[in-house]
């Protein structure tokens, strides 16, 4: 940290607080409008084959959004029902913006439930409508459909499901953030021993989050931002701001206890120089992890990375400016750290690990690998209407259509061939498609421009299931007389998976190199950063294994209040990787910064000195790490209170990652491996041995 920053903040503490207060008020007043600017974001990077195919289709034969209604509770042949549906169908055709209506009575599209107690109505809107215009028309259509004389009417479709997802995301954010702030506040008041001390980290969190909302409002003018992005980055901001505040407060308490007669300006300066440096390194590590999301080229992940980077910068700024200013103003209300308590959890675990480092390290690594075993059976998919809560009407309509009808609506794979359908080789190509495994039917479209053919290939099973994905590969591998493009849900999922697999090494390289360099700058060691990265990867693998067991297999689904849909959202492991990796680095930095200080204080360089430095560092930083982990665990449990399955995945995943990282990894694996390596923990190129490293005075 810049020399003199702490004194500068102390001298202008009220100005610093007023500036942050103005930012917080502006964020509270104007930041909420970010939800009015959010929008759904394509999950495919530009140039993906399925995206190119869809663009070509939109140019050739544009289609509008669809509204699907399931009419139930009365025999489909009842005269009153037939008259009511027919009358409403003709009314809907007259609504401006409606392109086509298909029902079982006024058109040839006979969609009757297997029990003859229900029928389907599909309304296609005109292509080219904006999102707002399409929603207005969909609402008019829905209002008309609800006038049908039937006991039960369920209305859904992709457009209405997207709106329900957005509305639910806003509700989940409000509930999650409110519960998280209240629970974290109570926890901090109890653990820090006072109302003011406990609320101080929350003040920093509110400042960081409101500033983030304000910034996201501006960002939404430049690039698409989803409701999901806002949810994730705001809760991440609360967690980081609380973490950094706790580190600064704990260091201030320590400096004051060591030198109670020192002027307050001096104490604030020491706090900022020591703890502030750790905050800066930690924030940089989290930002570096988020930067890895840009490598995937996914529009939603890019928005998440940009929003996450903003909240990290603002949380770091709050930790290094606002928190010292609040400490300078309220230092008399911050109690001394209790010395009556026994060794904390991390200290006890570290002592156990140092007594038997080999067996402990082996057992921990084996246990983490066992937890990661379910990852061998993982299935990834793009989230659809099934991630909405059971109470969602759009989901109910979808499930009713899929379960009660022999030929439910299904999104086909659409094949575009850049050659006319009258060519014999094109006809032969379509005949070959019908014979491919997993094909339920091939339907050639008419009314297209000359020189191009389009066919809808209906897969057996789910529209984006494994069989459909294999069919995509089969269609693209056909020996065609002209270029062939394949669009549809299965094609999009196939391309998304391939894009992730192709770009993952680049993202890993960005994250590993950046965080490794930051840890090297902090510890002046090559071994410690490499070991930290390996331990973080073990934590992430174990976390992903737990997620597969919970969300794919359904273990504990009843307790968490969701229904498994047989897969994980494709973006979940990517977001978990960067968030959990970054937050794990938080705790790694907090501990290593103190361990390094203790190592630098010692003149001996043998294994015993190394163990004493490790234990002393964990003793000093352990309470902060434990409290921070409890706080951020509560924050991410706020995700679990939400109704969206994709959001629950992040909440459970982050909570599991934090729990494993702070107890098993930092409490057992870190000290045991450092004991095994001894003084070689501190080796770097250019040193004849770890013992020859010059000592840097601390203080």
UniProtKB/TrEMBL annotation:
InterPro entries: MMPL_dom, Mycobact_MmpL
Membrane topology designation: Multi-pass membrane protein
Spans through the membrane: 178-197, 228-250, 271-297, 303-329, 358-378, 504-522, 534-554, 574-593, 614-638, 650-669
Tagged with keyword Transmembrane: yes
Cellular component GO terms held in the UniProt record: plasma membrane
Start and end residues of each Membrane transport protein MMPL domain: 44-360, 462-685
Entry keywords, A to Z: Cell membrane, Membrane, Transmembrane, Transmembrane helix
Gene3D superfamilies documented for this protein: Multidrug efflux transporter AcrB transmembrane domain (1.20.1640.10)
UniProt KW Cytoplasm keyword: no
Domain of life assignment: Bacteria
Location of the protein in the cell: Cell membrane
SUPFAM superfamilies assigned: Multidrug efflux transporter AcrB transmembrane domain
Stated family: Belongs to the resistance-nodulation-cell division (RND) (TC 2.A.6) family. MmpL subfamily.
PANTHER family: MEMBRANE PROTEIN MJ1562-RELATED (PTHR33406), MEMBRANE PROTEIN SCO6666-RELATED (PTHR33406:SF11)
Protein name: RND superfamily putative drug exporter
Species: Actinoplanes italicus
